[in-house]
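Propose amino acids for all 221 sites.
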């Protein structure tokens, strides 16, 4: 995805962006903040209490040893903030890839260990986006910060970028589809560029079972 560098807007203009489709002249929130955006992201499917869906991931390493593992697993979500991807089998050399999918997580869960602020507005593939900036509440020597790109019209999570102190970067972009009344994750594309590892990963999601009993651990459901 092509990203134009983030620029900052005065609060009144940013507030107008946050209310999306509301008519010009409508009263905007006086102090739009990250908590407002996180709440709206979490409320995208207000009647969706839980789901599980099968996920298939194709990984291709772009440097030695040029491996190309294929992973199958299940994605689980339970309101308010539980999210996890459990793979059927995970080769030892590929375990780092699981964390990429888990780290996308649930926006509500980010607040537990991240400081989150509004970084401004930017453009992603020619469309305006809200940018959130996250840093660990407990200092990390590995992860410097994370940027989150949010659609201001429906508060979908479009992309996340992890910036590492080593100079590495991981990008995860997401696409959605409608299943019944719900907007659900359809595809993900990740690019990994960190010291000693250069790879791409593509994930596709199957049919979602919605509002079903879900546990909150590795023994799910």
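Proposal:
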């Amino acid at each position: 995805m092509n990203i134009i560098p983030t620029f900052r807007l005065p609060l009144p203009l940013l507030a107008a962006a946050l209310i999306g489709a509301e008519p010009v002249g409508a009263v905007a929130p006086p102090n739009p903040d990250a908590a407002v955006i996180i709440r709206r992201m979490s409320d995208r499917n207000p009647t969706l209490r839980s789901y599980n869906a099968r996920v298939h991931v194709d990984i291709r390493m772009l440097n030695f040893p040029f491996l190309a593992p294929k992973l199958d697993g299940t994605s689980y979500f339970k309101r308010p903030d539980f999210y996890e991807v459990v793979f059927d089998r995970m080769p030892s050399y590929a375990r780092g890839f699981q964390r990429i999918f888990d780290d996308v997580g649930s926006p509500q869960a980010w607040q537990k260990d991240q400081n989150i602020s509004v970084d401004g507005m930017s453009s992603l593939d020619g469309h305006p986006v809200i940018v959130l900036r996250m840093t660990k509440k407990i200092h990390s020597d590995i992860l410097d910060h994370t940027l989150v790109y949010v659609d201001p019209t429906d508060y979908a999570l479009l992309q996340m970028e992890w910036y590492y102190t080593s100079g590495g970067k991981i990008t995860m972009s997401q696409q959605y589809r409608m299943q019944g009344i719900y907007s659900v994750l359809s595809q993900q594309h990740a690019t990994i560029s960190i010291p000693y590892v250069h790879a791409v990963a593509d994930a596709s999601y199957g049919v979602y079972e919605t509002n079903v009993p879900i546990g909150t651990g590795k023994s799910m459901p």
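The chain is about 15% helix and 50% strand. The two ends are 35 Å apart (CA to CA).
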